[in-house]
Structure formats: structure tokens, C-alpha cells
Design a protein that fits this description.
Alpha-Beta Plaits, alpha+beta, Cyclophilin-like_dom_sf, single chain, Cyclophilin, rotamase, 10 helices, four-stranded antiparallel sheet
Length: 440
């Protein structure tokens, strides 16, 4: 009677001693039949000693017999373990010996025995295990798989750094009838039962991408990091923002071309929500490029194909889809040019992306409630008092400056009127009285 274990390192075929250990073999076969061992990990691997599996928690403390599993699904109780079958002639003499791990009795009175955990020996003549654990089978195919399993890198607790899992179990021959209440699942498990943080069994930690793909991945990550930085400093509304698809960028314009001219020319393709020629902030001169926002993306695409290299005001214009996201952040195509009356009601700042528009409204509401995003702490109640104090400070500064001017004029008069002590003394006293009166 045989069982095929398909592992991440290769296949293993196990012949079972059904005549010498019928109860142990029945337990193992029925657990295999209900896919109990599927995606289980070899959680304890010792070089030239053994490789242990069969615990759904991968900790060495879980697992139960098939009769306990059936009882738990039926809502009844049954012993977790069954009594091991020890056969003196079955020893751990050869590599590939398969044994059920025998759990010791616990202090709370729980009786020890065999559950679902089993191990496969990776060395010869391991007589230390004889009489302590129940041998019930031998590996007849897959010795090379055991050799690969013996060479895996493990941590201090003996678990491989890269998971080694039983991908699937196939029962080749089963002579035992199914126990009452046994239900075979309709589907095979697709997720491991344990929460492993190790390297996945289908992941290659040393794999390298081709140079072109690696460079593309590095650039993508660098762009994501830059976008996140721009969002943090306020230059982008969102890190994952993308240019709207209904906005065209038109350049090589004649300086005399106006917003009305472009809108009239492009309006034959569809409804235009805004049309703006970008101008210099100080002089008002055209910078010879513009942004045109259509109501629909299809209209923008049609204008893109039809208006390329068209003659407008004796200039052949160039049309492309806009890559600017500045208006998504501040409502303007540039920091210098305002939208003015050319902006039509109902136009969206996010090219139809409702998720970005909702986030903008939420942030705007939070900013109105909290006074902006520049505060990360509660503002003290005396800030109004400090603002009033700052508003009065310029007047006091002017008084002090006027006093200094009078003091300097007095000093110049004193230097010009040497020898006339009495008038100088009266002038100084009068100056001080006037200054005190103003301060009061």
C-alpha cells in the first residue's frame, strides 16, 4: 500500500506496513484522503537525522488523529491521540524510514500517543528513536528528494529558511474502509494552514531579472518614491495621480492667438469645458502654448488626430495630450495664469476621476474645519491675543523711532549751542515732558 507525496523539492513514494501497523496506516491514509497534509510544511529538519511534518500550525504542538478530526466536525468529542503500535522488528535502521511522532502525556492528564505528525529519517542507523516512535513505512522512491531536503538551510529552531511544503498527496492504494462520518472535501486547499513568514516555497531569493527589466523596475520604484515626496511637499495632490485624458496641450501658437480663437476652432469636435492660453504674469504676453479641456475623452482624441500640424494664424500648431497635473492641485494650469471666465461650470479638475475628486473634497472640508494642514498640534487659545499684540507693535516702533530722531536733533542743537546751558537744559526738560506725555 503506497502514498505519493508531491513536495516542493520533488516526489516521495512511501510503502506502508499495513499488516504490522494497521491502525497507524489507516490513520495516515485517511488523513491523506481528506487532503489534511496538503500544503503542510516540513517545520523541523535536522541534517543527517530527520525531517518532520504533519502539524498544521508548523510549531510541533498541533495535529490530531483522523477519528478526532471526524468527531470535531460532527460536534462530538474523541481522544486527540491513539495508542501507538510498536513493532520490535521495525527499526530506524535505514534512510527513509517513516514514523509517527509520539506525543508525551501532559500534566493536565491528557494521554499521549500518535496524532498526525510524522517524520522521515535522513540518516542510517538512528537507533536512538527505536521504541520511542512508531515506524509504519519506508521511502521506496525519492531518495534524491531526501538528499535535497537534507541540505536545506535552517534556523536555530530547525525550520528551513525557505519553506519546504507538501504540495499534494495522492493515495495510490487504500485497503481500509472509510470510518463513519468521513467526508472528503470537494476542493483541494489552496492556502497553507500556518502563517509562515519564511521565503515561499515557490520563490527564488537569488533570482535576477534581465538587465532591461531590472532597470525598468528600478525606474518605476524611483518614480513612485518621487511622486510620494511631491505629495508630501504639496506639489502633487496624490502620489498616484495621472494626467487627465480629456485635456490637450497645444503649442507653437502665434502670439496674437487668443483663448476665444482656439475655443472657436476646436469646438467643432465637441463641448469644451475650458480653453486657456498661458501668458506671462508680468507682461501678459502669450507664451505660445495652451490647454484645452473637452467634456469627453473621445472628443479630445478626435481633435488630436485632426488638428495636428494645422495652420492657425499663420502658424502650424502642434497638438498632444497634456501631461500636466498642476491644475489637479491648485485649479490652474500654471502658478502665474488664472483661469478667469474661460472656465465653464461643471468642469472636473480630475478628468472624470471621482475618487480623486471625493478625496479633494474631504481634504478641503478638513482644512476648513482644522484651519489647514500646516498644524499637527492644537493651537493655543491665546493666538488671537498674540495676533492683536503683533498688530499694535508697528505703532510702538514708530513712537520709538520718533523719540530717537528727537534725541538726535537735541544732540545736534546742543553741539551747536555750546556755552548756553540754561536754554539747553530747558529744551531737554521740555523734550522729556513731551515724550512722557505721548507715552501716557
Amino acid at each position: 500500500m503506497s502514498v505519493l507525496l508531491e513536495t516542493s523539492l520533488g516526489d516521495i513514494v512511501i510503502d506502508l506496513e499495513v499488516e504490522a501497523c494497521p491502525k497507524t496506516c489507516e490513520n495516515f491514509l485517511k488523513l491523506c484522503k481528506v487532503y489534511y497534509y496538503n500544503l503542510h510544511a516540513f517545520f523541523n529538519v535536522s541534517k543527517d537525522f530527520l525531517a518532520q511534518a504533519g502539524d498544521p500550525t508548523a510549531t510541533g504542538t498541533g495535529g490530531e488523529s483522523i477519528w478526532s478530526l471526524i468527531a470535531s466536525k460532527q460536534g462530538t468529542q474523541a481522544p486527540r491521540y491513539f495508542t501507538p503500535e510498536s513493532v520490535p522488528r521495525l527499526k530506524h535502521k535505514h534512510k527513509g524510514t517513516v514514523s509517527m511522532a509520539v506525543a508525551p502525556a501532559l500534566e493536565d492528564g491528557t494521554k499521549g500517543g500518535c496524532g498526525s505528525q510524522f517524520f522521515i529519517t535522513l540518516g542510517e542507523n538512528i537507533d536512538y528513536l527505536d521504541g520511542k516512535h512508531a515506524v509504519f513505512g519506508h521511502v521506496v522512491e525519492g531518495i534524491e528528494t531526501l538528499e535535497r531536503l537534507n541540505e536545506v538551510f535552517v534556523g536555530q529552531e530547525g525550520r528551513p529558511f525557505k519553506d519546504v511544503r507538501i504540495r499534494h498527496v495522492e493515495v495510490l492504494d487504500d485497503p481500509f474502509p472509510d470510518p463513519g462520518g468521513l467526508v472528503v472535501p470537494d476542493s483541494i486547499p489552496t492556502r497553507p494552514p500556518d502563517n509562515s513568514t519564511r521565503i515561499a516555497e515557490d520563490e527564488d531569493p537569488l533570482a535576477t531579472l534581465p538587465e532591461e527589466e531590472a532597470e525598468e523596475l528600478r525606474r518605476k520604484k524611483a518614480a513612485e518614491a518621487s511622486a510620494l515626496t511631491l505629495e508630501m511637499v504639496g506639489d502633487l495632490p496624490f502620489a498616484n495621480v495621472r494626467p487627465p485624458e480629456n485635456v490637450l496641450f497645444v503649442c507653437k501658437l502665434n502670439p496674437v492667438t487668443r483663448d476665444e480663437d482656439l475655443e472657436l476652432i476646436f469646438s467643432r469636435f465637441g463641448t469644451i469645458m475650458s480653453c486657456q492660453v498661458i501668458r506671462d504674469k508680468r507682461t501678459g504676453d502669450s507664451l505660445q502654448y495652451a490647454f484645452i479641456e473637452f467634456d469627453r475623452r473621445e472628443d479630445a482624441e478626435q481633435a488630436y488626430f485632426k488638428m495636428q500640424n494645422v495652420l492657425v494664424d499663420d502658424r502650424r500648431i502642434w497638438v498632444d495630450f497634456s501631461q500636466s497635473v498642476s491644475r489637479l492641485n491648485n485649479g490652474k494650469w500654471s502658478n502665474d495664469a488664472k483661469l478667469g471666465p474661460r472656465r465653464k461650470p461643471g468642469a472636473s479638475n480630475f478628468g472624470g476621476r471621482e475618487d480623486l475628486e471625493e478625496t479633494r473634497r474631504y481634504r478641503a472640508g478638513s482644512a476648513d474645519r482644522n484651519g489647514g494642514y500646516d498644524m499637527v498640534f492644537d493651537v493655543p487659545d491665546d493666538r488671537h491675543h498674540r495676533r492683536r499684540s503683533r498688530s499694535r507693535s508697528p505703532g510702538r516702533d514708530r513712537d520709538r523711532e520718533r523719540d530717537r530722531d528727537e534725541e538726535r536733533r537735541y544732540d545736534r542743537d546742543r553741539d551747536g549751542r555750546r556755552g548756553r546751558d540754561r536754554p539747553r537744559s530747558r529744551s531737554r526738560d521740555r523734550h522729556r515732558d513731551d515724550r512722557d506725555r505721548r507715552r501716557r
